Every structure is written in structure tokens, then in C-alpha cells.
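Lab notebook page, bench 4
Experiment: in silico fold of construct C2
Operator: M.H.
Input chain length: 307 residues
Purpose: comparison with the prior construct
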Amino acid sequence: MKFEVVIPSRGSIGTLQKIVESIVNSNVLPSKVHIIIDKFIGKDEYDIILYFIFKKIEEEKKQIFNIITNLNSNLCPGVGVSYIRNFGINLCKSEYMYIIDDDNIFGENFFKETIESYSKYQNNFEKEIFLSPTIMYRQTNKIQSQGFKKISPFLAKVVPTKSTGDYSTPKLIGGNSIFGKTNNFKKIMFDEYFEFIYEDLDFSWRATNLGYKIVVDNNLKTNHMEKEKSATEKSFIGTPKTAYQKSRNRIILIKNNAKWWEKYIFYISGLWIQTGWFIFLVLFLGKHSKFETFKSILKGTYEGIKF
């Protein structure tokens, strides 16, 4: 099974070194790995990135990597992760592809087990599937995500899937790691109006609404090496920009995908409870730019309702 990998990245050398190492140590290699650098860089920085991420890599294995920047393509960095993922999707020519965030590390059997898992569960379901591994918090035994059952309209909160079996079929998944047929990714694509935050939930919700099946393999695992986050950062309202995006996008997500009765409950309940919670977090637990972040919550909420 030939597949390509798309890795959106901000160009952190330390982060890229770790995921590149995971890939080259795999016993099954992708036919191509597209690392898309989501920031404007100059020639010197580009050369430095290449040197440090590839300095310990065999020449033959370097050939599978395709480093995409503003220097060697028509890429426009800074537009948002949806745009970056779509850029990568359009580069892929293999029948299958994997979108993986750059702050992941995994074992040598990860790709092999992904292919086996996909083949197994695709045979189990009549519908086309998208497969996601279980996301582990760093190198611990703590499960970070196995997808989400739904978004509760009463509280406007995602309801996590907690499965003890071999797999689960959540309605929604995050964008950390998603495997599937390239043509299916190209049929759905990420909505670029969602620059970041909820863009992955929108993608998977639209996929399930269109009849695709989301499968999370509870035995297939990747380690998400994200940085430590404050309470506001965990809620994606730690800065004015993220607060605006989350406040706006949560409303558009419901408008675009929910059933009419879910929208009704959300507007009379969840929207206002969640907005109040955001304001509480910013005013009492926020560390920087509290007033600007508060204004961004109000602005995002207003523009989401107006959308």
C-alpha cells in the first residue's frame, strides 16, 4: 500500500528532528513525506533547517522528503493550518495519505500497523473510513484523545470517546493524525475559513455527515509531544488571536454541521455558558493581554453569530 505523509510545521528544528527520526526508523516507509513550513523564511534559515534535520539521515532516505517553503513553491505562509493541510493534500499522488502534526513521535511499527489497521477496519465497514490512532500525551500512559462522540449543545463542550475495546467510531476527531484515501481527503478538504481551532472537528463532522466512517484504533498509538499549557491555552483562548478564532469558529462549526434542534439548544444555552466560561478564564486565570483577549472573545462571538 503506497502512501504519502503531509506534515504541517512551524519550522522548529528540534521538533522536526524528532518526527523525521521516527519516520526514517520505520520498517515501512512512505513514498514521499511533504513537510510544509508555515512561516516565511530566507535562504540561510532554509539551509540551517535542512542541515540539522537531515545531518544524521542516510542519503537514500533523504530522498523521500520534500521540504516545502515560500522559497521553492507558491506557498503563502501564515494563512492558517487548514490552508497548509490543503496545500499538502493537493501535493499527494499516492492512493493513500497520512496527515500528521509535526510534534509527534512514534515507534518503528507505526506505519506498518496503520496499514494493517486500515485494511482490517475498511473490510469491516461498508462505508469508506478515515483512521486515526489513539493520541497519547507525550511519552506517558495518559490518553489525550480517542476522538469525540459529539459536541454537547447544552454546554458547547466536546464529549470525549472513552473506549476499552480495540476500536471506536467517534463522530469527530482532531487533526493530529488522520489516514485515509487521498481522493477522499480531496473530496472533503479543510475549510480554510477556519484558520485554526475547530478546523479538524469541522473536517471530521462534515465527513461523517457525508457518510464516511471515523475509526480510532485503540491499539495504534502516537505520542503527542506538545508543550505544557496554561488553563487559557488549553481552552485556546490564551491570546487575542486564538480567543477570537475559538469564539467565532465554535459558532460556525455548529451552524454548518449540527441538526436544527442542536442549533436551537446551543443558541439558548451552550453559547452563553461557554462565553461566560471563556471570560472567567481570561479575567481570572489569564496572564497576558487580558483586556485585548476579552475584546477578542466578544468580537469573535459577534462575528460567529453574524456569519
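Observations: The longest strand covers residues 213-224. Residues 231-306 form one domain.
Next step: discuss at group meeting.
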